[in-house]
Amino acid sequence: MRVLSLEKKILLAFVAGGLLLLGARWFAVESGRAYLAADAKADRLRDAERALLAVELSLRGVESGQRGYLLTGREDYLDPYARALDDVGGQIAEARELLAEQPEAMQLSWKMDSLLRFKLAGPLRSGSGLPQPPRARFSRAAHRKRHPRRGRAPPPPSPAAR
After folding, report:
1. Which residues of 21-41 are buried (b: 16+ CB within 10 A; e: fewer)?
2. Is residue 125 a contact partner of residue 85, using CB atoms and an 8 Å limit?
3. Where do runs of H (alpha helix) occur along 99-149?
4. Cα–Cα distance between 53 and 14 in angstroms, integer?
């Protein structure tokens, strides 16, 4: 059996320590890269969430504009409707771009896009012109005929009642 000298033992200890430090450095670098990649992915998902929230807000604008027009017949309600319709396409494209690396999210995005196109091609987007709001059916005269005393002062008492 051969006994190593003290110098060789110290040299082996330094080499083993150096290899251990190299292994720890490799682990730290790889962990840092994985952390940065996960953080970048989380940032992209947050950005996609913001883009989808913008789509939702635009769709609410479409809905409220359409509802306002259909209830009142005033065409100034169509301004937010048209503005929101213009915004929705770009917002969906932005969300799809942010979700490009997520295959399941892309499938849902395409389904959402087809549903939105179907819904947004509704009565106010058709080439046949704007639908007439239901105002004609519920005119004030017709309402007064059905409810003659509502909203008016009571009639003066008749002379015979005095």
Report:
1. eeeeeeeeeeeeeeeeeeeee
2. yes
3. 103-120, 140-146
4. 58
As given in the structure block, the two tokens for residue 102 are 């997520």
Helix (H, G, I), strand (E, B) or coil at 117: helix
| Amino acid letter for position 97 | E
Cα(162)–Cα(157) distance, integer angstroms: 8
For the chain, helix, strand, coil in percent to 5 are 75, 0, 25
Q: Is 20 helix (H, G, I), strand (E, B) or coil?
A: helix
DSSP H helical segments within the chain, as ranges?
6-72, 78-98, 103-120, 140-146
* pLDDT at site 34: 95
DSSP 8-state secondary structure symbol assigned to residue 153: P
Distance CA 134, CA 73 (A): 8
pLDDT tens string 14-43: 999 999 999 999 999 999 999 999 999 899
Packing angle, helices 103-120 and 78-98, rounded to 10: 160
- Record the pTM: 0.57
